Amino acid sequence: SETIDTTSEIKSYKVRWLILIVASLSATLRSFCQSCFSQISNVLARLLKVQLWQIDWLVVNQSICFILLTLPIAWITEQVGFRKSFIIVTGLLILGVSVERGYYLLLLGQVLLGCNITFGYAVLPLVSSIWFPSNEVASAIAIQFCSRGIGEALGSFTTPLLVNIHQSNAVVSFRLTMLFVPFVILSVVSLLVSYAFVPDSPPLPPSLAQMKKQIGSAKIHTSILESLRLNFFKVKALFSSPSFVVITTATGLVNPVFRVYTILLSSMLRKEFAGEPGLNQVSGYLLSVAWIFYTIAALLTGPVIAKTKKYRAILAFSAFIQLVAQLSIVIGMRLKLRALIYPAVLLLGAGAGMTETSLTELSVEITYPLEPSLVSSVNLIAMGCFRLIYSVVSRALLDKYGATASTLPEPILVTIGFILIISIPMRFKRMEADTPES
């Protein structure tokens, strides 16, 4: 049976939990594939006969997908609706995890996963806003980010456990191929469930804010060119808001930092502590725990935001935590202090979990009633641009000057993001709309 609100025109349906489960499973699978290669970059480089920077691009290529495909995918999501978008996400996941043989086919699989991730970011806020009441929206977002954290944690330590530099190429190739068999099976199951059980929208909206949005944006059939023109003006309207520009810039500056360490940490440790055995495993375990911290922080942040509505204060606090962690890593690398580096990486994971949940929720809050998928997409472009810059610059600094130099750009730019977050006044539009008198 369904849970009915005090207003008969508002209702929450149990199918929302099935939709959230499928969305979370997809996030876990694609996140595993994001993190599973970087910790064994030297093993893969030998197996595939490529350079270390080419292994980085198994993840970095996704930034290109964010930059080039995000707005087109946001438009597609708006045109085809929630159900078809959800099916596309699970369908692309099958393709992404099925192509895993040889460097260029492996890269193609990761590019397809990049497309999947881009669609996933567009669909993520829709799962919450279309299906969940206002008091559950932040928690639904947090659960999806938690699922991502679980996938990243599993990917970080699984591959260093399965393969190492002392094994033959034949053993490494076989073990990695077998690793992805259950992923294909789970992806097919997700697609079938999406096709069979996921509707386009609930019969009745789950909140006053969603009901008012539906009333204010009745479906108008337009041509493709007219639809593109309307989307151009929506993006223009977003950037007319100083608070949104600040949040988008902060998203780009702060969000990608933890990802850079997911890509480069094993290479940094091998460079700084050259000759010591087992550094891939150390990096894998460390990042796995860091992603668990990310998951816990994201899970706790959603309900805290829902209860306190302290969007900006929580975001500023999480950015400050990341800044402290990054400065500690810089000092630890410079002095070769593992006792400082390792806890700092864990702290960075916790800060990243808080940051991502609060950034997503705050962006949707201040831009209401614009489509959450469009807002998320613009933020994703900013994140893709900075992630690309961070990853390429840090790899170049690592190869030429060492691990300490490769850790310097991030704390400088995150400091700028922190200052932006605390400096601009913001209006919480969705909170205002979710009151009967508004």
UniProtKB/TrEMBL annotation:
Q: Where are the transmembrane segments?
A: 15-33, 54-76, 82-99, 111-132, 138-164, 176-198, 244-264, 285-305, 311-333, 340-360, 410-428
Biological-process GO terms, alphabetical: heme export
Instruction: State the annotated membrane topology for this chain.
Output: Multi-pass membrane protein
Which compartments is it annotated to reside in?
Answer: Membrane
GO cellular component entries: membrane
The record's keywords, sorted A to Z, are: Membrane, Transmembrane, Transmembrane helix
Listed InterPro entries = FLVCR1-2_SLC49-like (IPR049680), MFS (IPR011701), MFS_trans_sf (IPR036259)
- A GO MF label: heme transmembrane transporter activity
Q: Do you know which PANTHER family this protein is assigned to? A: GH15861P, MAJOR FACILITATOR SUPERFAMILY PROTEIN-RELATED
Protein known as: Major facilitator superfamily (MFS) profile domain-containing protein
Biological source species: Ciona intestinalis (Transparent sea squirt)
